[in-house]
Each structure stands twice: as C-alpha cells, then as structure tokens.
Amino acid sequence: MTVQQREQALSRIAEHGVVGAGGAGFPTHVKLRQPVGTVILNAAECEPLMHKDKELLRHHGELVVRGLVQAAAITGAHKVVAGVKGKYEDVIAGLQRLLPGDGVVVPLGDTYPSGDEFVLVYDVTGRVIPPGGLPRDVDCVVINVETAYNLGKDEPVTDTFLTVAGAVARPCTVRVPVGVPFSLVLELAGGATVSSPRLLSGGAMMGQFVGPEDPISKACGGVLVLPGDHPLVRRREQSWQQIARIGASACDQCSFCTELCPRYLLGHPIEPHLAMRTLGFVEDRAAAVRGAQFCCECNLCTLVACPEDLDPKRITVHHKQALRAQGQRWQAQPHPYRADVTFADRRVPMRRLIQKLGLGHFTNEGPLLEQSALPAQVTLPLLQHTGAPARPVVASGARVRRGDVVARPAPGALGASVHASIDGRCELFEDRIVVRGAARGGS
Ligand code: SF4
Ligand code: SF4
After folding, report:
1. What single-letter DSSP state applies at residue 56?
2. Structural domain of residue 107, as residue ranges?
3. Do residues 192 and 255 both lie within one domain?
C-alpha cells in the first residue's frame, strides 16, 4: 500500500466512525496509524455467557477477515494472527479457511481473562506489553472481531451486535441500530424472566449497570440480565464506605488477590493486597501504591480470589483514579517484563468462573438473530469512544438518512464520527442527538 493509499484508507475509516467494539471504543483510524509487524484478531471473548464474537465469525467471517487483512495492509504488518478459544473448533476451522496463506489461528484456553489485550498479546506472541504501554510497544496491534467486521464492511457504522444473556426467555445475539434502548434488545430476547431485572452492560466481570431506556453504543458487546437480589448485583451495590470499612477490618493480607492478578502475573508492579493495606492509613494512600494505575479492572481479585468477599478491585481502582487526578504516572523501566512461570496455571477456567459467579443456571449460548424491526427513535451519545465528545454537524430539526454523519470530532481531537442509524429528524441535546423516525412523525 502506498503512503497515499494508506492515508486514504485511514480517512475513510475515520469518516465511517469505526471504533474498538470491545468496550473502550478507541478510534480505529488512530490505532492503525502506527506501523507494526503483527495484527492480532481478538476473538477470545471471555466475559461469561457472551457470544457476539463467535456468532460474528460464524455468520460474517469473510467480512471480519477482510477487515483484518485491511488492517495488516494499513499497518504494514507481515503477520496476521487470530486468537480464538480452542474449544470453538468450528470457528477455528472457518477462520483457517478464510485467512490468507500466512495467517495463523492460535487456539486459546477456555479461561478468564484471555480476552484482556495484554494477556492475549502474551499468549499469542510470548511478549509482555510494559506497564502503561500499548501493544505497539511490542510491535503488535489488536483488533476486536466487530471492529474488523466494520473495517471489512467499509460503510458508516450504524448497527451494532450484542449478546443478551442471563435472565431472559431466549438468550441470543442481536444486530440493532446504534442508539436503541436496552429495553428493545430485552424484547428481542423474549423479555426478562424476573421482575425488576438489573442490567449489566458489558457482562458479569467488567460490566456497568445501565437502565432499560439507556441507549446502546457502538462499543457495547453484550448485556447480562440479572434478578435484583443476585449476589453480583448486591456486591456491586455496596457503597464505598461499606467496602472501605469492612476491608480495613477484615483483610488478613493473605495476598490471594495479588497471586491471581493477571497484570501482576505478567510482571507488572501491581499488588492489590497492598492497595487493601492502605485502608489502615489515613494519608496519601494512592502514592503508596502507584502500581494501582495498571489495574485492567478485570475483577478477578474481588469476584474470584478473595476468600473474605472483600473488594480489592474497587479499592485499587479508587487509587488508580486518584493517581490519575494527581497526574502521577509510572516512569517506564528499561528492562523487559517477564511473566511469572505459574501464569498459565493461574488462569480461571470459564466453567468454574460461571459457577462461582452464580450464573450456572443460565443458558450459555447466544445464537445470532439478524432481523429486527427499525425502532421509532434512537439516541446517539456524542461520546461513544475514547477521547472527546464529537461535535454535532446537524441542527435540531434537520432531516437525516441512515448513514449520514451527524457529529464529528473537533479538529485535532481524539474521537470518532457519529452517524444516524435510522432515517428521521434530529433533535440536539448537550450530550446526545435523538433521531425520531417516520413512525413518530419526524420525517
Ligand atoms: S485476598 Fe482478600 S483478604 Fe486476602 S489480601 Fe486480598 S483483599 Fe485481603
Ligand atoms: S481488577 Fe484486581 S486482579 Fe484485575 S488487574 Fe485490577 S487488581 Fe489485578
């Protein structure tokens, strides 16, 4: 690819608003700007009960591989690798058929958190990304399955795929216009099977509570529906005062949380038991545990490791946020980081994790439903990505067609464009654009 072709391809990706579809929503045109030797497809999908990536690969593998090959061409990578759990033999066989001659599938163990970018890069290449670093620091770029699909599709991102799991009549994976409410995907899954359901966008381990009328963004990979009295809900509802008070009195410093922390096991200077120890001090707790800034928020320490049911993850993240607010950053060390020799043995098997989380009675499947009726209205948040909110380029009352740009990043700002996901008329708010379709008399 010539320099000019590369720039054209990157502008097209930016114009289409492609972002990382694995949660953070990092703008893909920025990620692919750096030359690297290896492009890795992250198909590890390790949030319990989530199946979007497998379903996309089963039904749209050609587009995913097309996008992956395009990412390799743009970055100049000479190697394309897909990390997929070994138990999905049909997905691996399909990928092996579709990948170019030098493409490789690396079968991964069925463990958590095999989809963490740092863990995946280590599993696939044997290289450890340094603390606070990026895959490009070890000559790699990691692309999520839906991101590769969107690259391969080469159109504005107007739809998103997500799994609807847990307490619903028919767990499934759906394709819906960006900006529909979570209540709509619950309907597509046959409705909740419990009264007063709670929704965890993103899943059991790393998800966040959302309301039924909150809009679904481009970066949402799934929603887990739980009864309000489920232990996962109750633990997340504990206040900071509760977890700090109980943590200060009940933590026996056994350090099991550190012993299972995947970033600690990759050789990073993070030790959640030290974060817990700070609860006994009164001053400058965060400065005592600078390694907290490398927490990937996987939640293993809290939901699996701690025998006392304490919350070392939240304590660690609290320090991480304090360090960020203070502008304190880890100074990069020159020596390479090495994973602990026991790392492979300290992964948490998915089956055990599902049981431990109290999810064993839910269906662990998510077949893809492609068809859904267009909604009467969508709500498009201006911030669905890492960086600054996009700026509207339409006025209230403007008529738009599905695929039209309605907001763009400010010049020079990190961000991604936002597109209308249905035909209709726009209404602007401070942080979002609502598009009302013909069914509501808007167009
Ligand atoms: S595992 Fe629990 S009890 Fe042990 S050090 Fe960590 S927070 Fe404390
Ligand atoms: S959530 Fe806990 S286990 Fe995960 S990276 Fe952070 S400290 Fe380590």
Report:
1. H
2. 3-153
3. no
Cα distance between residue 162 and residue 42, in whole Å: 16
Rounded Cα gap, residues 179 and 195, in angstroms: 25
Q: What percent of the chain clears pLDDT 90, i.e. is strictly above it? A: 85
Q: Are residues 389 and 274 in the same domain?
A: no
Q: Assess whether the C-beta atom of 131 lies below 6 angstroms from ligand 2.
A: no
Q: Give the Å distance between the CA of 240 and the centre of ligand 1.
A: 17
In the chain, how many domains are there? 4
Pair 349, 398 in one domain: no
Using a 6 Å cutoff on CB, does residue 174 contact ligand 2?
no
Query: In a 3-state reduction of DSSP, which class is residue 375?
Result: coil
Identify which ligand lies nearest to the alpha carbon of 273. Answer: 1
Residues with beta carbon inside 6 Å of ligand 1?
Answer: 251-257, 273, 276, 305-306, 308, 310, 312
Quick one: pLDDT at residue 378?
97
Q: Which residues contact 322 (CB under 8 A, 6 or more apart)?
A: 285, 286
**Ligand 2 lined by 306 (C-beta under 6 Å):** no
pTM for the complete prediction? 0.93
The band of 130, judged by pLDDT with boundaries at 50, 70 and 90, is very high
Q: 260 is written with which tokens? A: 């299972």
| pLDDT at res. 285 | 65
Residues 398 and 370 sit within 8 Å (Cβ to Cβ) = no
- Pocket probe for ligand 2: among 235, 306, 316, the residue whose CB has the most ligand atoms within 8 Å is 316
Do 13 and 66 belong together in one domain? yes
pLDDT, one tens digit per residue, over 371-397 is 766 799 999 999 988 899 999 999 999
Would you call 386 helix, strand, or coil by DSSP? coil
Whether residues 80 and 126 fall in one domain: yes
CATH number at residue 122: 3.40.50.11540
pLDDT in tens, 19-48: 988 777 899 999 999 999 999 999 999 999
Ligand 2 lined by 314 (C-beta under 6 Å): no
